[in-house]
Amino acid sequence: MQNPSPADPAPRTRLGRLGALIARHPRTWVTAWAAIAVVCFAVAVGGVTGESLFERLHSGAPTVDSEASRAQDVIAQSQPALETLTMQVTGADLTDARTVQDGAAATRAVGEVKGVKSVRSPLLAPQGLTDPSVAPLLKGGTPAAGGFVTVVDFVPGLDKAAQDTAESEAETRLLAVATTMHAQGSVGSTSKVIKAITSTVEHDLLRGEGIALPLTFLVMFFVFGGFVAAGMPIVGAVVSIGGALLSLFGFSHAVELDATVVNIVTLLGLGLSIDYGLLTVSRFREELAHREHDVPTREEVARATERTVATAGRTVLFSGLTVAIALAGLLVFEASIMRAIGVAGVSVVLVAMVVAITLVPALCVVGAKRLSRKAVEQTSDVGVFSRLAVGVQRRPVLVIVGVVVVLVTLALPTLSMKLTSSGTELLPKDAPQRVFFEQLDRDYPALSAPEVTVVAASSDTAAVTAWAQQFRSRPGVEAIAVQPLGSEHQRVNMRVAGRPTSDEAQDLVTTVRATPAPFETLTTGQAAGQIDFLDSMSARAPYAVALVGLGTFVLLFLMTGSVVVPVKALLLNVISLGAALGVVVWIFQEGHLEGLLGFSSVGAVESMVPFLVLAFGFGLSMDYEVFLLSRIVEFHRHGAENDRAVSLGLQRTGRIITSAALLIVIVFGGFVAGDILIIKQMGVALVAAVVIDSTLVRMLLVPATMTLLGRLNWWAPAPLRRLHDRFGITE
After folding, report:
1. What is the helix (H) or strand (E) element at residue 588, kind and residue range?
2. Strand 521-524 vs strand 184-188: parallel, antiparallel, or unpaired?
3. Which helix (H) or strand (E) covers residue 471, if one does?
4. DSSP H helical segments within 561-608, as ranges?
């Protein structure tokens, strides 16, 4: 029996007509996209509007509208947060009167800077360094240690230019204080931490792309056997990066965009663009192989282009929509950062999808003669992947059991997952601002924010103090202090040993919130904010899962006409993503491979990572599912029996899926090589997800389960079958 050929003539579709249009005017499409790319890069990173994307980024723990944020609002009404600049001085001889006098004179000069509101320094104490009120500003609480801090408060409400000028001048004069005292000084601030994170993100992005693009080009050179074919997906990827950066630049004007969003979203766009370009160029060469002439005629090129856009374009369309649906699940969550990632991610996926079905086919037409040299029709459907499929089909149950055992074993560490929201710990251990604040917390603990803060709606300080003292005996609690907060509230500062999001701090938050009080209380702090964030995410997660699951099911049903295949795809993806998260917990929470990957474990996983991995990982997994299913369905509709369709589908797509997976691993390897902790965790998670999915799931589990189910793969209730006959999306 002759193998069914998906290259048989088919009725012209909308995508086919688009392919024909591209074939008629390929250089117009290429020129238009080149102009668009130049504009995108000029606006997003060239600063033609006065500022670049990286100058508009922010950083901070993810927040939601909650008890913790309401408490912060109450505090801000009475104690508005000021922009500050802090200098630590070490090696000063504070027992020498002349040295102290010279330092005090230099410190007064800091207060003369325009935009500075006040300067807090032990050198300016009226009663000298022995004044008890300045002990928190002295290292060890005494002048003998030779260390002190100076804190500069700026006038609130300064515009960005005035603030930057004031900070720069104040920093210069602060460091002059240390020089005058023949000591060493270092300066830090929240804005400097944010700048350090954003600049590191920009550096990581450039380094990641600098690594990914050459390596992906090299891999595709061996895949395609030529420079021209290998370069086409790269060109499409570069254009997609420009579109991604421009979309992020636009979103930065609507919402505060976290610095980590840029790497996550941009590299996703890069990876998808390369995958889609690989698929499109491969299909074009396959279609071009059906030509009659050694040098393809314009009609043959046009026919190959039309067929490529109709088939590979359809696959890209389905794949892009499934990834977009997965990312759209992030829009359900309350946290603004998750919504920002969701909206930006969807836009980037759409850009990659449009580039793949317009620009890349146009490039194929322009380079058709060069591509035709390697476009030789394959006479056999037997190869490595078809033999793998046949081997799996002989023992499907054994394969299913073996693979599931491996995946469950990998997923087991997720049962002990702990989540955290790091601050300066996001930076490398030797980053100057991380070192600065770790030293500040160690030497001047009184200046650090309390781990837990309670805002009590009472004007009676004594009553609030009496109520708060019951928590003094809680594990890890080191000190409790009460101070008036305006005329109607009291502020209770609770200091807890360990990190701000430690188990002790979180337990204390839970206990305080559950303890009755004769007045209204609001609990805040980093631990409280994390608890509220995770509670909000957990409450919205079922709706996100339902949206993504339903959307993916409907899309796969419209593609396959089956209800079994979509359900099976969803279940397999859940198992593989659980395994990927298990790898992340084993590495980052338990501290394995620290030296190899270049990080220091904080004993937990960043709180956003599991949700982002589920969204991005699910989208990428469905990406490969669509690649494989589209060809299996194509062969099945052309008359192949179930097992034969699976074998042919795996043979035709196995090389593409493997190559695409290798390329995406290279791209996300840029995440792993990055310096920002959350980006590194995302990189490892997505690399693990892609490797697991493209090997164990796509090459073994899918053919095994489809073989076991047999004709049931294509089952659907009669009403749904009629619905698919009417509305199903086919070629």
Report:
1. none
2. unpaired
3. none
4. 564-584, 594-597
The amino acid at 668: F
DSSP letters for 409-454:
HHHGGGGG--EE--SGGGS-TT-HHHHHHHHHHHH-GGGSPPSEEE
Q: How far is CA 421 from the centre of its chain?
A: 14
CA separation for the pair 544, 540 (Å, rounded): 6
Q: Cα separation of 325 and 575, whole Å?
A: 19
Cβ contact 730:637 at 8 Å: yes
Q: Between 503-514 and 526-560, two packed helices, what is the crossing angle to 10 degrees? A: 100
Beta-carbon count within 10 A of 184 CB: 14
Q: Write down the residue that tokens 């090589």 correspond to.
A: 673
With beta carbons less than 8 A apart as the criterion, state whether 263 and 59 touch.
no
Q: Which strand (E) or helix (H) includes residue 473?
A: none
Condensed to tens digits (0 to 9), the pLDDT of residues 127-181 reads 889 888 899 999 988 899 999 999 999 998 888 889 999 999 999 999 999 999 9
Which is it for strands 419-420 and 605-606: parallel, antiparallel or unpaired?
parallel
Q: How far is Cα 51 from Cα 73, in angstroms, rounded to an integer?
A: 30
CA distance linking residue 575 with residue 408, whole number of Å: 7
Q: Going by C-beta distance under 8 Å and a sequence separation of 6 or more, which residues neighbour residue 56?
A: 249, 252, 253, 257
How many other CB atoms are there within 10 angstroms of residue 431's CB atom? 19
Q: Where are the alpha helices (DSSP H) in 93-226?
A: 97-110, 160-180, 190-224
Query: Which of these, 610, 623, 642, 632, lies nearest to 552 by C-alpha position?
Result: 623
Separation CA 267–CA 263 (nearest Å): 6
For 625-679, what is the HEC assignment?
Answer: HHHHHHHHHHHHHCCCCHHHHHHHHHHHHHHHHHHHHHHHHHHHHHHHCCCCHHH
pLDDT reported for residue 60: 64
Instruction: State the average pLDDT over residues 211-224.
Output: 80
Q: Where are the beta strands (DSSP E) in 311-369?
A: none
Name residue 84's beta-bridge partners: 153
Question: Does residue 315 surpass a pLDDT of 90?
Answer: no
Query: What is the number of helices (H) and of strands (E) in the chain?
Result: 24, 10
Residues 6+ apart with CB under 8 A from 466: none
Greatest CA span in the chain, whole angstroms? 102
Q: Is 275 exposed, middle or buried (0-12, 13-18, 19+ CB in 10 A)?
A: buried
Q: Report the Cα 713 to chain-centroid distance in Å.
A: 35
Owner of token pair 């430690």: 502
Distance of alpha carbon 686 from alpha carbon 352, whole angstroms: 19
Helix (H, G, I), strand (E, B) or coil at 92: coil
What's the rounded Cα separation, in Å, for the pair 659 and 215? Answer: 12
The CA distance from 556 to 633, in Å, is: 11
- CA angle at 327 for the pair 323 and 55, rounded to the nearest 5°: 115
- In this structure, what token pair is assigned to residue 500? 């701000």
SS3 percent helix, strand, coil of the chain, rounded to 5, is 70, 10, 25
Query: Regarding predicted confidence, which is higher, 190 or 359?
Result: 359
- For residue 102, give the amino acid letter: D
Dihedral-angle region of residue 560 (phi above 0 means left; psi in -120 to 50 means alpha; beta otherwise): alpha
